[in-house]
Each structure stands twice: as C-alpha cells, then as structure tokens.
Design a protein that fits this description.
- The protein is an all-alpha fold.
- It has a single domain, classed as Orthogonal Bundle (ABC transporter involved in vitamin B12 uptake, BtuC), CATH 1.10.3470.10.
- The protein is about 85% helix and about 0% strand.
- It has helices at about 1-5, 10-35, 35-45, 50-55, 60-80, 85-110, 115-120, 130-150, 150-160, 160-165, 170-190, 195-210, 215-240, 245-265.
- Helix 2 packs parallel to helix 8 (about 130-150), helix 2 packs antiparallel against helix 11 and helix 3 packs antiparallel against helix 12.
- The relative contact order is 0.18.
- The mean pLDDT is about 85.
C-alpha cells in the first residue's frame, strides 16, 4: 500500500477521492432528505451532452459537463417545481436529450475519444493535478454555500410549508439546492462515472440516515462512509487491475446490504 502511495497518479486519485467523498456525503444527505434522487440521476446523465459538446468544440470536458449540468439542473428545478406530478417524465426527457446530444456530438467529432468512456464509468486513477484544483474550488463553493444557508436548507428540507410561512423564498432555495447537486455530480463523475454517480450520492446517505439524529451528523457519517468506500475501491481496483468506479459501487452495495441485515436483526428483537 505504501508503494502505491508513492506513485503520483495514486496520490492524485487519493486526493480526488477525499474531495469527492466530502461532497457526496454533504450533498448526498440533502438529496436523500429532499427525495431528489431522480433529479440527481437526471442531471448526471444529461451532463453527457456537455461532455460531447466540449469534445466537439475542443475544450475541457469537465467544464462542458459543469455548464451543461447547471443548465439542466435549473431547467429540471423549474419544471419539476411547477408540475410535481409529471416530474419523473420531465426529468426523463431532459435525461434522454442530454445523453442523445452527447452521443451525436461524439460521433461528429473526428477520431476516437477515450475520455468519453471515462465519463461514463469514471477514471479516478487518471485525474490530473490541474483537475484537482477545479474539484477543490467546487467543493469549497459547496461547503461555503451549505454552511451559509444551512438553517434555511434544513427548514425547506423537512417542512417547506412552515419555511414558506416564515417568509423563506422556498423556490430560490430549491433552485440553489439542485444547482449544488449539479456541482457535486460533476465532481463525483470523475470517480465513478455518470452511470454510477447516483449510487455514490445516495447509498452512504441512506446508511447514515439510520445512525444520525440530525442533518449535520448525517452529513458527517455519510462523508466518512463515502471516504471508506472510495479509498477501499481505489486500492482494490489498483491491486486487481479493475475499473475503479464499479468497484466502489459494489462495495457500497455490500455495505448497504449489511446495513439492512443489521437493521432487520436489531428491529426484529
């Protein structure tokens, strides 16, 4: 293990894993509490359109993913807020359009684009040093914003009607929340890919919810669980020469099943 850590790309991967774990622990808790899993999944898959656009125009795929994710998050937020009954359909449409656009633009780009595969399944072992700076900036934005608006997000998450009666701008807070989810998705895609990102966002938070008494403690526990999963998946995938993203998610699924078993045994007594 110590020999692995002496490699530059493993050091970069470990730093990226820590950043992603904190982001997923914090925002994953808000996603679970607010039941935004479908929106998070929609944003992740729709972001592929931004990746395809970036590759087609010749700029950073992560920047393309970031811009497109924020655009889709705002669009999904507006549409689902106005028509909650058809939210799944609307999210599915944007999801499909984003994926289709990404595929078409990739096909129109001359040559093979290996980066596209890494965005689908993650490629944390190939995260360059300069990308870590952008990930750190995104995490800083997420943490500062959540800290500043924590009480307001807390009230909107658990009792939006009460928050509205107190004069809170619930719609603006909702839009802020989905925008932060978009930033988190862009970060997490580097580790597990857009196909698996929803699992990394929700599994640790689902587990943490049982063992926490507040939203803040839920965020802490979820971040720790995410960190354990990402770091363990990183070293296992490197040792066995496997793709890191799926390994992380399989470990998460195993932890979740063990959690359900323990929960059933405890509550059955």
């Amino acid at each position: 293990m110590l020999e692995m850590l002496q490699l530059d790309f493993m050091q970069n991967a470990l730093i990226a894993g820590i950043l992603v774990s904190i982001a997923c622990g914090v925002m994953g808790s808000l996603v679970v509490v607010n039941k935004l899993s479908s929106i998070a999944g929609g944003i992740a898959h729709a972001s592929y359109g931004g990746v395809g656009l970036a590759v087609f125009l010749g700029f950073s795929p992560m920047l393309g993913s970031l811009g497109f994710s924020l655009l889709c998050a705002v669009l999904m937020g507006i549409l689902t807020w106005k028509d909650r009954h058809r939210s799944d359909t609307l999210i599915g449409v944007i999801w499909a359009i984003g994926m289709a656009l990404g595929v078409i633009l990739t096909d129109l780009t001359p040559g093979y684009n290996g980066e596209m595969t890494s965005f689908l399944f993650g490629s944390i072992l190939t995260v360059p040093r300069e990308l870590l700076s952008l990930m750190l900036v995104l995490l800083t934005i997420i943490l500062i914003t959540v800290s500043v608006f924590f009480k307001r997000l807390l009230s909107v998450s658990y009792d939006p009607e009460f928050a509205r009666s107190r004069g809170e701008r619930v719609l603006l807070l909702y839009m802020l929340l989905v925008s932060l989810v978009a930033l988190t998705v862009v970060m997490a895609v580097q580790a597990v890919g857009l196909i698996l990102v929803i699992a990394l966002l929700t599994l640790p938070a689902f587990i943490a919810e049982t063992y926490s008494r507040s939203l803040f403690s839920m965020m802490i526990i979820a971040s720790v669980i995410s960190l354990v999963l990402v770091v363990s998946g990183l070293f296992i995938s490197y040792s066995l020469n496997l793709v890191t993203g799926p390994v992380i998610i399989i470990l998460g699924a195993i932890c979740y099943l063990v959690h359900l078993l323990i929960k059933k045994l405890v509550y059955s007594k």
